[in-house]
Write a structure and sequence with these properties.
This protein is mainly beta and 91 residues long. Helices cover 10% and strands 26% of the residues. A hairpin with a 5-residue loop joins strand 7 and strand 8.
């Protein structure tokens, strides 16, 4: 799996936790947007491209502090939890 296309899981209410494999280089916009039960998306690497609004604001992105995904959370004002840390920031 190298790409998650635009709106791939849009409004999929059966998702609760997702881990994006390191093989994924592209995450298009709105991939998990509208997934109202989605609590966390874990991204342990920096994909080459991440489109706007991949998740709802209620979802927490799990990533490494200082990563591109950390900056993405700042840009879109998303909650994040640092991998290897206990605290959630930007709530």
């Amino acid at each position: 799996l190298v790409e998650l296309g635009e709106s791939a899981f849009f409004k999929c209410n059966n998702l609760k936790h997702v881990v994006i494999p390191e093989s994924v280089d592209v995450i298009e916009r709105w991939v998990f947007h509208g997934c109202n039960r989605l609590e966390t998306v874990e991204i342990r690497h920096d994909p080459e491209y991440v489109g706007p609004w991949i998740v709802n604001k209620s979802c927490t992105i799990r990533c490494y502090k200082g990563s591109k995904m950390d900056a993405y959370c700042d840009e879109y004002e998303l909650k994040r939890e640092y991998i290897g840390a206990e605290s959630v920031v930007n709530e």
